[in-house]
Amino acid sequence: MTDVFLGSCNEQACENLARHFHPGCCHGRGSPAHERGLAWLKRVTDGTDEGFVAAHSLAEVYAVLTTLPVHPPISPSDAKQLIQHNVTTKLEIVALSDQDYVQVIEHLAALSIIGGAIYDALILRAAATANVDLVVTLNEKDFQRVYPNLADKIVAP
User: Fold this and answer.
1) What is the mean pLDDT of residues 40-53?
2) Apex 103 CA angle, 97 and 106, nearest 5
3) CA distance linking residue 135 with residue 35, whole number of Å
């Protein structure tokens, strides 16, 4: 069994999650890369691998699901159910301490990395905290840039 940390949920990845688990949503949308990402989630849900997710990623998933430009839109209640059914009941949630946040900021400042890359760095800090074998993300290059010492654990689906 492999310990797998599932990375961020961008609009396309969340749309693929919604398309598969929310009937009537997003017909005909998605991509092969997102299908492969979903396959990793399925490996966790069927017990092949053990899965982890950063606590703040739950907020990202909720934000993306509830604002996807799909018809019918995903209601807050449906987004909550999608997250509960597919994430919080299937993956171990890894929370960061206040000290972790300070150390991530120090780490990025030392590398002169700015902006939204901090969210990728927070996910990777949570992955390091969980001591996982792999970090699966559709954002492989950015993840490797913010934590080059974890590059060998970062994989694209």
Assistant:
1) 87
2) 150
3) 17
